[in-house]
Amino acid sequence: MTTLPPEENNGQAADQHAAGEAAAQPTPAQPEAAAPEQPAAPVPPPAAPQYQAPPAGAYQQPQQPQQGYQQPQQPQQGYQQPQAADPVSSITLNYWLSVFFTWLPALIFWIIEKDKGNQRAMEFHVANLNFSLVRTGVVIAGWIIGMVPYIGWILGLLIWVASVVLFVFHIMAAAKAPDAYRKGGHPEFVFNLPIIK
């Protein structure tokens, strides 16, 4: 005995049956047409971040400090000329170097200071150079006179004593020079010859 499904479903069942048969039947393999592969487009490297200058006139004010704190105001100052060095230090250095090295430091300080325009300081440098030249002349004379036969050693000894006395006078003048300059006085050498003016 066969039972048939009702007719309403008969159309649907037939469709399902046809679909099942089509699925069950093998279909002949058709060669697929291979599509030519296109080369992949090159990937550009990532761009480096570019610096963008702020637009002209877009200066940003620095952030204001928190409330309750005020920045100290600095006074507005124009150009200030550097202050000249204290001439007392150069006079003191000149005198003490000249005590031990005679004319060479005195000449160097005289050359350096002559164009600076300080006449009082220049007076001290000139006096020191003159006294240093006197000391140097006495030492040279002592060597020359010491070579004279018979009496040269006696005169050489006297000149050597004179050079020691001049050395002591130079030390005394070097000790008094800074105070003399500050008080508006003159160089305090016991004697001096005006070789250089």
Keyphrases for this structure?
197 residues; 52% helix; mainly alpha; single chain
Short description:
The chain is mostly helical and 197 residues long. Helix content is 52%, strand content 0%.
Label the overall shape: elongated
Helix percent band: 40-55%
Using DSSP, what is the number of strands?
A: 0
In percent, how much strand structure appears in the residues?
under 5%
| Head-to-tail CA distance between termini | 158 Å
Give helix and strand order, one letter per element, not per position: HHHHH
Backbone CA Rg: 55 Å
Q: Helix tally?
A: 5
Mean pLDDT: 78
Based on secondary structure, the structural category is mainly alpha
Low confidence ranges: none
Q: Could you describe the largest sheet, including whether it forms a barrel?
A: none
In words, what does this structure look like?
The structure is a single chain. The chain has helices spanning 7-24, 87-101, 103-113, 119-146, 152-182. The mean pLDDT is 78. It is built from five helices and no strands. It has a domain at 87-182. It has 197 residues and is an all-alpha fold.
